[in-house]
Amino acid sequence: MTDLTRSPADSSEMTGLAALLAPLGTVLLSTETITSAVELVTALLVETIPGTTGAGVTVVDSLGKRNVAASDDLVLEADRLQYELDEGPCLDSWRDRAHLQVDDTTIEARWPQWSRAAAQVGVRSMLSSPLLAGQDCVGAIKVYSTEPGAFDARAAHLLELFARQAAVLLANVQTLADARRTSRQLTEALQTRDVIGQAKGILLARGAADDQTAFATLLAISQHTNAKLRHVARDLVESVTTPTTDLQA
User: Fold this and answer.
1) How far is 102 from 125, CA to CA, in rounded Å?
2) Where are the alpha helices (DSSP H) in 49-148?
3) What is the pLDDT of residues 216-229, one digit of tens each?
4) What is the pTM of this model?
5) How far apart are CA 166 and CA 143, in angstroms?
6) CA separation (Å) from 92 to 37, 121, 129, 140?
7) Phi (first) and psi of residue 70, to 5 degrees
């Protein structure tokens, strides 16, 4: 693993990278999806790291292993081979939380099946870094080249620095998405509670003995019609609140 102890050169490099990554600071304000954010990441990777033919981001979560962005078809194919074979530097980067480098796929022995297949589709060298967000590793970020030995120690160092920033971005976007999903679920729950309350009020006005009896009536209708309780309540409320159409000319 590359020594990340800062030197004056490192500080200068960090400053330059920070300036390059500045557009990412606006992503949380302008997009709601991880896909939009990592598309920007991959575009910057191709422009930043010399020798790069294509770049991509792999996310591993409850939905499985998948690309959330790729700069071109070469990246998609190289990654697809990893997912199908369940071997390759990108997956081990995620599993082992390690920065990995392949100098020549034609002689790479750590992932023999993937290396042979990758060489056949045109990949000759690559770099991969884990996306570490706190205690979690959410995936890996990688760059590919059609030339052997395309990446040197500086390129590896740049990708590691880039991975730190990208991991924070992805974690923040995911957190934002989770928060909005929770907020939406809470809003839906409150709306459901309100409409059920209104429906019970209608039944009480029609002679239901008490609140519990009104709710039991709604529940019985729900079970009988195989409809969700909130839909039964909504239909009852709408039947009372929707104005009748005046059919007279």
Assistant:
1) 5
2) 73-85, 89-96, 112-121
3) 888 888 888 888 88
4) 0.62
5) 14
6) 24, 21, 10, 9
7) -155, 140
